[in-house]
Amino acid sequence: MFDLPIPDPSPGRRLGDGGPDMIQVLTPEGERVTSAPHEYLEIIDALTDEDLRGFYRDLVMIRRFDAEATALQRQGELGLWASLLGQEAAQVGSGRALRPQDYAFPTYREHGVAWCRGVDPVNLMGMFRGVNHGGWDPNEKNFHLYTIIIGAQTLHATGYAMGVQRDGAVGTGDDERDTAVIAYFGDGATSQGDVSESLIFAGVNNSPVVFFCQNNQWAISEPNEKQTRAPLYHRARGFGFPGLRVDGNDVLAVYAVTKVALDAARSGQGPSFIEAFTYRMGAHTTSDDPTKYRMSAEVEVWKLRDPIERLKAWLAHEGKADGAFFAQVAAEADELGADVRARCLALPDPAGTDMFDHVYGERHPVMERERAEFAAYQAGFEGANHG
Amino acid sequence: MAERTRTDGPAAYPVTTTLAKGITSGLRAAMEHDPKVVLMGEDIGKLGGVFRVTEGLQKDFGEDRVIDTPLAEAGIMGTAVGLALRGYKPVVEIQFDGFVYNAFDHMVSSIAKMRARSLGHVGMPIVVRIPFGGGIGAVEHHSESNEAYFAHTAGLRVVACSNPHDAHWMIQQAIACPDPVIFYEPKRRYWDKGEIAAEPGRGLFQAATLRQGTDVTVLAYGPMVRTCLQAAQAAAEEGRSLEVIDLRSLSPLDTGAIIESVRRTGRCVVVHEASTFLGLGAEIAALIQQECFYSLQAPVARVGGYNVPYPPSRIEEEFLPDLDRVLDAVDRLMAY
């Protein structure tokens, strides 16, 4: 009766390589895995050298941006930063698989996806600097505001996908019309009821949404085994749709599996679940201290699986990029760092009265009264300053 | 907001019907008026909802617009957010007041805040219908009055209807509003009959003076409106003149109507089923002492549920305000 295999729940398996089911195209040493499923290898073979160099450039640029933001926090210019260090490939690989009409629902760490969508990186700093709570127009790049409530965005994504279905933008065969939605979340979020409910709603509605879980092994201080007994990608089957694990530090593999999943969603085949097996190289946020709960030996193991180094090694070995290219990207990255630093420091503080704006779309007497009272109170200090 | 000035609801006004059917025809009119309006909830399709408020709508508008959802309130509310982001206007039915808490996070963290956190780029034109209040002999979690939680949350608007006319028009006005509206329906009054006129008569956020009086202002909403009108009738027989105002909107409050009346009468009783501690009555009492200080003949009285979990139904009538408790409060005010 109870004949299902029970996964090994023992701690420490995150030191492993993701297991035999994990899709990988490039090894950590930058060697091509020829045994990867054919459909994924075909997608990668169809990429031009320029595409491949573009992946490398994205990875380097977003890591540089992230480092600049961390530095700005350390210098007191940001109140907090949530670093994506180590997760660049999971974000760039999936982000590059999206089409313009697709819609992405991020957590607060998807700086790499935002980069791929064309969101100005300085916009991502606003909430961490405390000048707004996000504030960009999500519909401009089809990239929703960062969501801090863990897992809530998976339901928002699913509802959006239900809207896409009602608009008849699924399965028409028109590449510019058919639309997929991607929901980003982490391993910790999989414990939230919202995530399970989103899998239910997407499943029963056959909605065009890809659930993209970056399993970075840690939910602040709690390791995977505090969140789940079974591998996360196994979960999809229970909700009635496919799930797989991909090497989240292999940008090409992530791109290929996400592209397949998005294509399936757009064509009307419904949802799927991708577990990108990766690692949070830094702290949860700049307020965190990972030395209190994890071994440095674990971090050392994952350093050897760096997403940028493996792509660089492969590009160089294959003759698809040379030293001049790598140097040029490094210079561009430094320019980006300087640019976002300058523009972050120039972000204007909002006026106090701004807090009353945009709470409601229509006139609201409490907003009007309190705004007037606040303004009058502030005005009372003006004379004193000059007295 | 864009007030509806003409009808595309029932073929002919005035029409006499129940409060529940007034909402049904209001929903129907809104769905005919705007193809982006979709209804979501548990058992709202073939069954027509446990109170039959959506009866017949799935047959006429299809399963894509009248959505029988999985049995998960957080899931319903979270996907309603996504549908709104895609340009839809979801009208969510929460089956009973006490079931809304699973959805609370999406209502407070996402729906209420989305417009502000997007600096006005994205609105949340979502209506959440909640049958509320007790007096129907129900089991636990089926008789609550939780409006203060939502009225306390900036970004939401909260209204309560009390009669078929308002039910019919207020639901249409709520759906037309670009802001999220929590729409409370007095479940024990669902079967009250009344006439629906051809025009709404007033905006969604305006109170209605249902009976004019000179001695005491009685403020109520939802199921307590009928109770207070009956109390005013009884008081009149004793020579006391009560002014009864149906607040209709709990957030924002129609402060002008409240202040004008209390300045005239000098006395006020606020009546609601919800527990009095930090309930709407507390906010209204604060408003009145601030705005009507020199007109008051007596402190503001509150008549409401006791500050306990909603009791078992065999003693719910002891918990709920009734005509006698309203009159008792009036007596105390008149003794000052």
UniProtKB/TrEMBL annotation, chain B:
Coiled coil spans: none
Presence of the UniProt keyword Ubl conjugation in the record: no
Keyword Mitochondrion: no
Residue ranges occupied by any Transketolase-like pyrimidine-binding domain in the UniProt entry: 17-192
SMART domains, per database record: Transket_pyr
One Pfam family from the record: Transketolase_C
An MF annotation (GO) of this entry: magnesium ion binding
Cofactor(s) the protein requires to work: thiamine diphosphate
Gene3D superfamilies xrefs: 3.40.50.920, 3.40.50.970
Record field: transmembrane: none
Keywords (A to Z) from UniProt: Oxidoreductase, Thiamine pyrophosphate
Protein name: Alpha-ketoacid dehydrogenase subunit beta
Organism of derivation: Candidatus Phosphoribacter hodrii
